[in-house]
């Protein structure tokens, strides 16, 4: 039996402050130690090294299997234009739990009980039941890929498949709260606290029922102006494109009026730019400033993270959350529990930790009561369309997949969706 070589370590090079990895007697410097870039380069180097080894089914460890699978995933889970999908990030997140719990365990020794141990760590970490089930399925997918490539014994994968998903009411894992429609009055109260660009994103999404990511990625080149008074938005990427399905979003007269001022730009550029939004926010803040700015403040270089050229669903959601905190006057101690605790110099470390936990819990409860997310806008539009036009129209306008809807009804459904948005969008 060939002897299995241990994978190269991720090391710290003290003189340069860089991450270092030694492979086959040669040192590779990966960039600043601990940075995401250095970790990614380390994974690529080790993945290539593993592919050259005699990784037999007998000696392969779980973390080595995960590295090989991630190398495969980086090339497999991609959009048509070659950009990686969000599934790669989801897989990296899922496999962290597996590697942390049983990374050095041999694949031949990994079974259902160890997988259930990983699941228990996720329950203890506070993950919700549905998220845990999705994460476990991704872990099983890794072992299935290993069987396909003769890295994992088939009986191991079959045994892991016997681990059933957590059922509602039959587990200690917490249940996630269902996404509820947001009241239009609540949205209107929040709009004045948003920048013009984000407010227009909210209005357009509420009218058309598009997903938050679809609102963020909208570009002029994706818009087709129809002769029937309805515009059609075909996203470059969408949730079900890998299934060969088409996604059309119809924009009626009201939505067209909102979108019109963003179409006079580079066709390939995103309509809603966080750079422009941030410039507007800073201008408004300067106008509201009561005290004059000192020369040192004027000459000070701006700090903070680099602003991207387009919103992501996460940055879009954060902008809405901050607006909700301002609109509904979130207490300052709840906005930043760490700063509130830091100001309490008279407390002991134990008392500070307890206060921080209490403020964090109160902040979470406050946000559940007053804050809403962009995804709720989609649910609001779905509810309104279903009440007025029926379930079939709602499914088509929002792009929901239903096995009962066959291909022969596709054109009829698209015409129905266009008619609906002509009246209400």
Fill in the keyword field for this structure:
425 residues; mainly alpha; three-stranded antiparallel sheet; 19 helices; 6 strands; 6% strand
Q: How would you sum up this structure in a few lines?
A:
The chain is mainly alpha-helical. It is built from 19 helices and 6 strands.
Give a verbal description of the structure.
By secondary structure, the protein is mainly alpha-helical. The chain is built from 19 helices and 6 strands. The chain has helices at about 35-50, 60-75, 85-100, 110-125, 130-150, 155-160, 185-190, 195-210, 210-215, 255-260, 275-285, 295-300, 315-325, 330-335, 335-345, 350-370, 375-390, 390-400, 410-425; strands at about 10-15, 20-25, 25-30, 225, 230-235, 250. The chain has a 3-stranded antiparallel beta sheet, covered by helices on one side. A 3-stranded antiparallel beta sheet has the order 4-5-6. Helix 1 crosses helix 2, helix 3 packs across helix 4 and helix 8 packs antiparallel against helix 10 (about 255-260). It is globular, with a radius of gyration of 26 Å. The model is unreliable at about 405-410 (pLDDT under 50).
């Amino acid at each position: 039996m060939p002897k299995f070589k241990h994978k190269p370590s991720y090391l710290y090079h003290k003189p340069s402050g860089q991450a270092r990895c030694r492979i086959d007697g040669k040192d590779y410097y990966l960039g600043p130690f601990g940075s995401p870039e250095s970790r990614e380069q380390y994974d690529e180097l080790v993945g290539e090294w593993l592919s050259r080894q005699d990784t037999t089914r007998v000696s392969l460890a779980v973390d080595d299997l995960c590295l090989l699978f991630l190398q495969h995933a980086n090339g497999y889970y991609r959009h048509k234009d070659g950009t990686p999908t969000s599934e790669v990030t989801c897989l990296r997140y899922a496999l962290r739990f597996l590697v942390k719990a049983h990374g050095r365990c041999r694949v031949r020794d990994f079974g259902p009980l160890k997988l259930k141990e990983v699941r228990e760590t996720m329950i203890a970490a506070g993950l919700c039941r549905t998220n845990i089930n999705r994460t476990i399925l991704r872990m099983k997918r890794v072992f299935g890929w290993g069987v396909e490539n003769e890295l994992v014994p088939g009986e191991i994968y079959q045994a892991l498949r016997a681990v059933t998903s957590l059922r509602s009411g039959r587990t200690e894992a917490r249940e996630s709260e269902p996404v509820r429609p947001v009241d239009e009055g609540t949205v209107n109260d929040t709009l004045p606290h948003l920048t013009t660009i984000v407010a227009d994103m909210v209005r357009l999404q509420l009218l058309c029922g598009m997903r938050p990511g679809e609102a963020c990625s909208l570009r002029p080149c994706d818009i087709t102006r129809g002769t029937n008074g309805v515009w059609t938005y075909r996203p470059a990427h969408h949730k079900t494109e890998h299934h060969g399905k088409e996604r059309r979003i119809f924009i009626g007269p009201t939505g067209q009026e909102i979108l019109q001022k963003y179409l006079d730009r580079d066709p390939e550029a995103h309509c809603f730019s966080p750079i422009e939004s941030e410039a507007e926010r800073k201008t408004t803040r300067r106008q509201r400033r009561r005290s004059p700015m000192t020369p040192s403040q004027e000459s000070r270089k701006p700090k903070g993270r680099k602003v991207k050229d387009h919103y992501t669903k996460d940055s879009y959601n954060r902008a809405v959350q901050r607006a909700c905190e301002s609109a509904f006057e979130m207490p300052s101690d709840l906005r930043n529990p760490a700063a509130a605790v830091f100001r309490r110099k008279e407390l002991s470390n134990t008392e500070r930790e307890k206060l921080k936990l209490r403020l964090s819990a109160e902040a979470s409860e406050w946000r559940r009561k007053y804050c809403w997310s962009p995804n709720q806008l989609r649910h609001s539009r779905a509810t309104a369309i279903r009440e007025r036009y029926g379930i079939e129209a709602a499914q088509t306008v929002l792009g929901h997949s239903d096995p009962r809807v066959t291909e022969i009804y596709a054109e009829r459904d698209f015409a129905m969706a266009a008619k609906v948005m002509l009246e209400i969008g």
